Amino acid sequence: MGVSTAFRCKVTAVPITMERGAGPCFYDVDGNEFIDYGLAWGPLIVGNNHPQLSQAITEQLARGYTFGAQHRGETVLAEKMVSLLPGVDRVIFSNTGSEAVQAALRLARGFTGREKFIKFEGHYNGWLNNVLVSSHPQPEQFGKTVGDCGGQPEAEYSLTVTCPWNNLAALEQVFRDNPGQIAAVIGEPILVNGGSCMPNEGYLAAMIELCREHGAVSIFDEVITGFRIALGGAREYFGLQPDLSVYAKAMGGGFSISAVGGRREVFDALLDGRTGHFGTYNGNPISVAAAIATIDILSEPGTFERIHRHGYALREAMESAAKENGVTLVTSGTGAAFHVHFGLQRPPRCIREAMQADQAIGDRFRERLFERGLYCLPAGRWYVGAAHGEEQLQQATGAIREAMQGL
After folding, report:
1. For residues 322 and 330, what is the distance between their CA atoms, to the nearest angstrom?
2. Which residues are designated catalytic?
3. Which pLDDT score, from 0 to 100, does residue 347 have?
């Protein structure tokens, strides 16, 4: 299809080929410059070619590509994560978010001795068959566990129980329907993949408490929110400590790395041999060096305040321009990751509400922004990073005002 992952098919009518990146910008093979508000679907939290990150990678290249053995960087990164992430006692490394989700589920199953797990409707937890279910269901599929694409045998998600999100009563009912069988509950603490839906007040804390009551492992899928909405991710942002959290994307600043971090006791299932964790490239020196450098850059004072301020300014610009032009629009999420929903009167709280947005108008708006040098993702998703500055904000707000006219 001319792309390496199906998600890229929907960004533009004809896939665009990029030549290079610099800071907050992309440059395609025709020489066009775009302000990047997609951040390569999340990883480029500090922008392209950040000198500190590039230096760390270059220095590691001179020392070696990979060892298939332990190296100093793994310990440095692990200690850094444990010091920054509230309630994280231990970590393991993988390469992608999809891998780390599977590692977290295996840990939970090894720890509890149970097989079933709960995932939420509209949440994307990776592309493997046991979790790629009910991520974007049709209305007639609401309340069911259904595969998202062909080639997914039902047997491979027979132990996956799908539950509506932001509905505490529904979650309680699933536990009652499966007494003593649920190993884990996994979900995005902010439903970024399904419209940047914020959790209801007290919902995440109640989810964690329900897991404790029923002997299940609570898992935050922080592939998106980790090191993005705060240095300590959703744990810091919401002041909560689930049993496990999954990290990827922003963690590596553009290099492929992921991790699972959490409560000491859950990781005992690895130490005593109840389960295992594998992967040739786990903890590889290049990606580890990138993660260390990225976290150091994000640790600079004021970084997340600037990121959120930039994002909220974009959201305000869109809402104001929509009002001036008689367009119905709401935004939802945070400043670092948010969605724009045309045709909605209030921010959605779940995928069912987010699906009511007018995607046709959203696509036209995105096309107009693209013509004005803004590179944005489909379905109204925006990412803001540390490289976005005042110059990009001024250009973006001007483009937003122009693009909103006539919609």
Report:
1. 9
2. 124, 221, 249
3. 98
Residue 160 within a domain: yes
Do 105 and 182 touch, CB atoms closer than 8 A? no
Q: Would you state the pLDDT for residue 7?
A: 74
- Span 105-133, average pLDDT: 97
* Residues in contact with 77: Cβ distance below 8 Å, sequence separation at least 6, in sequence order: 91, 93, 288, 291, 292, 295
- How many other C-beta atoms can be found within 10 angstroms of the C-beta atom of residue 139? 7
**CA 29 vs CA 34, 297, 372: distances in Å:** 12, 30, 17
Task: Record the pTM.
Answer: 0.96
Query: Are residues 88 and 82 in contact, defined by beta-carbon separation less than 8 angstroms?
Result: yes
Q: What is the number of other CB atoms lying within 10 angstroms of the CB of residue 140?
A: 8
pLDDT tens digits, residue range 200-212?
999 999 999 999 9
pLDDT band at residue 26 under the 50/70/90 scheme: very high
Burial 366-396 (b: 16+ CB within 10 A, else e): bebbbebbbbbbbbbbbbbbbbbeeebbeeb
Domain residues for 142? 51-298
Could you tell me if 98 and 199 lie in one domain? Answer: yes
| CA 229 to each of CA 129, 171, 189, 190, 326: distance values in angstroms, whole numbers, following the listed order | 28, 26, 11, 10, 31
As a whole number of angstroms, the distance between CA 47 and CA 53 comes to: 10
End of a domain among 251, 271, 298? Answer: 298
Q: Which of 99, 103, 97, 79 is nearest to 89 (CA)?
A: 79
